[in-house]
Amino acid sequence: MHERGEPSRALLRLAGVQEQVVTREQALGLDLSRHTLDRLVRQGLWQRLTPGVFVTHSGQVAWASLAWAGVLLGGEGSRLGNRSAAYAGRLVDVAPDPVEVFVPHDVIARDRPRWVFVRERPGARNPRTTGSPPRTLAADTVLDLCESASPRTVEDLVTNAVQRRLTTPKQILRALSVRGRHSCRLLLVELLSDVDEGAESPLELRYLRRVERPHALPPGVRQRPSADRGALRDVLYEKYRFVVELDGRKGHEGAGRFRDMRRDNTALLADLSTVRYGFGDVAGSPCEVAWEVAQLLMRRGWPGPFRRCPRCPPGTGKF
To answer: Record's Pfam families (predicted)?
Structure first.
């Protein structure tokens, strides 16, 4: 066979699909000689990521390349899992180190400095994959990260996944239904029901679960478009022409403050009273927020009654 002195077009196309990563077997199988492969590494044109796996350039190695290398090291049937699947799928924003790779249950893969391999139990997750490199489906990824997580983390993961349009509450519930056990099953079922009703952010979820419901406030309508379709009302008490806007941002500078002003002005033109609360209000003083909202609703015709919850400080709910 003629010895190729440079990578073939087919090999370069494959490398392009795999974030510029190829294995020794792939390179040799696409007609690159061992001598040329060694020369490319020796001259610094290619880099050896780990024995048998190469990146086809001399620059900084991207996380996506490390992810592809992990899947190739895992072999057939492997895929990104846990936080690596979450990062590749935009569920979390911080790249994990090392890369976590799920491999079939009958495969034994040795951990390396930049890669950890986890053997998957058959039937634990949907066998389908998504993305490049392949990863677990978003619903399964959410459930994996929620396992043994704090309630606050579970709230964040579920709302992020739905708000970013990565999956739906029904898809997560369906994935949960086929799992034999999950440490946060009851919390997930409750949260997913609330998110399905329209609570899109962790702050909206906290308002619903810690302000509105425990104090018997009338149920608000979530994410209702304004009359001009220019804004979404976080919580609209339509019968009482009253809006609660929730803002988890730190500060309200520049364009953000201007958008808030326009949204409030539009509400005023529609004869809607508006109050605005941040995360510190809802998380730190939910009972005080509830009593304040209750009084404002009563001024607009809500008959009550306001219900004190077990956490209410003395004096809450008294005129």
So the answer is: AbiEi_4
In a domain, 309, yes or no: no
* Angstrom distances, CA of residue 151 to CA of 167, 183, 191: 20, 11, 10
Enumerate long-range contacts of 197-202, CB under 8 Å, 24 or more apart.
197/222, 198/222, 198/223, 199/159, 200/159, 200/162, 200/163, 201/159, 201/163, 201/246, 201/248, 202/152, 202/155, 202/156, 202/159, 202/248
Distance CA 43, CA 45 (A): 6
Q: Which residues constitute the domain of residue 209?
A: 202-299
Residue 66 lies in a domain: no
What pTM was estimated for this model as a whole?
A: 0.78
In this structure, are 182 and 217 located in the same domain?
no
Two structure tokens written together for 289: 């927020």
User: Can you tell me the distance from the alpha carbon of 67 to that of 21, in angstroms, rounded to the nearest whole number?
Assistant: 10
38 and 150 housed in the same domain: no
- Complete DSSP assignment for 250-290: S---HHHHHHHHHHHHHHHHTT-EEEEEEHHHHHH-HHHHH
Q: Which two tokens stand for residue 298?
A: 């009563």
Residues 82, 74, 4: CA angle, nearest 5 degrees: 135
Given a cut of 60, is residue 138 above it in pLDDT? yes
> Torsion angle, CA of 310/313/314/317, rounded to 10 degrees?
-80
Number of domains in the chain: 3
* 81 and 184 co-located in one domain: yes
In this structure, of 50-54, 139-143, 267-271, 285-289, the range with the lowest mean pLDDT score is 267-271
Taken as a whole, the chain contains a residue count of: 319
In a domain, 262, yes or no: yes
Q: In a 10 Å sphere around its CB, with 0-12 CB exposed, 13-18 middle and 19+ buried, how is residue 170 labelled?
A: exposed
User: Which two tokens mark 138?
Assistant: 């978003």
